[in-house]
Amino acid sequence: MGWADIELNNRPAILGESAEPVLTAAAAGHFDDSGIGLGSIVRGQDADRLYYMGWNLGVVAPWRNSIGLATGSVATGKFLRLFAGPIMDRSPEDPYTLSYPWVMRMGPDDWRMWYGSNLAWGGSSADMQHAIKTASSRDGISWMRHADPVIGFTQPGEYALARPCVIMRNGTFHMWFATRGERYRIGAAMSQDGRSWQRCDEAWGLDAQGDGWDGEMVCYPCVVQHRDKLYLFYNGNGYGKTGFGIAVWDS
C-alpha cells in the first residue's frame, strides 16, 4: 500500500509518491499474510485510522479475506497495525469472506461501516455472490453487523459488488462501488439513512468505454469532494495494471 500527492485542478498533476510502503503484508500465519487492500482512512485528533482488507490464499476456496485496522498519520504516511488479528472476520452473519471496508464517523459514538461479504461460493470466482453489507459501532473497533445486504444485484449477470465508497452530500448518503458481471464497471446508490439504498448507476455510475487503458474495465472507485466538484478515482484494465484515472462530476 502506498500514496500519491495529487494536485486537483483542470489538469491534475502528481506532485509526489511514497518511496516506502505505508503498510505491507504480514508474516506467515496472519490474516493478512498474502496481501492487503485499502478500504478507507478516518482522520482523528491523536491518530488516523486505516481500515483495510487482509488476504489469505486458500486451498478449496481461492481466498479468504478479513478486515484489519492500522493507526498512524496521513501527514507522514506511516501506519502500524493496531492488532495482530482482524477486527472483523468470518462469523454467523458473514460465513465466507469479507472485503474492502468503508468507515465513517458520524458522531462521538456513531461509527458506520459498509463492506463486501460473500453470500455463496462455488468452484470458481464467477460462482460467488458478493454483496455489500453494513455494520455499526460505538468505538470503531467492535462492530455490530446487520446480516442482510444493503446493496444487491440489479443488472443481468452481476455476481459481485465490492469496494464501496460513501460520502455525505447535501444531507444524502452517496455510494460508489465496483460491480462485476460480464466486465467490471462502477455502480452507484443513494440513501437517506445509510441503510436503505436505491441504485442509480445510470446517473452516477461509470462504465468502460473505447479501447484504451480503461476500455475493458473500470473498478475500485474512491470519490472525494474538493471545492465544488466531485472527483472519482478508479482503476483501469487488469484491476489497475494499466494505472488509475480520475473522472469529474462538476454539476
Which features characterize this protein?
4-stranded antiparallel sheet, 251 residues, mainly beta, 2 domains, 2 helices
Descriptive overview:
- There is one protein chain.
- The mean pLDDT is 94.
- The chain has two domains: 1-106 and 128-151, no CATH class; 156-251, no CATH class.
- The protein is globular.
- The strands form five sheets. The chain has a four-stranded antiparallel sheet with strand order 3-4-5-6, with no helix packed on it. Strands 7-8-9-10 form a four-stranded antiparallel sheet, with no helix packed on it. The chain has a four-stranded antiparallel sheet with strand order 11-12-13-14.
- β1 and β2 form a beta hairpin.
- The longest helix has 4 residues, at 201-204.
- Helices cover 3% and strands 53% of the residues.
- It is mainly β.
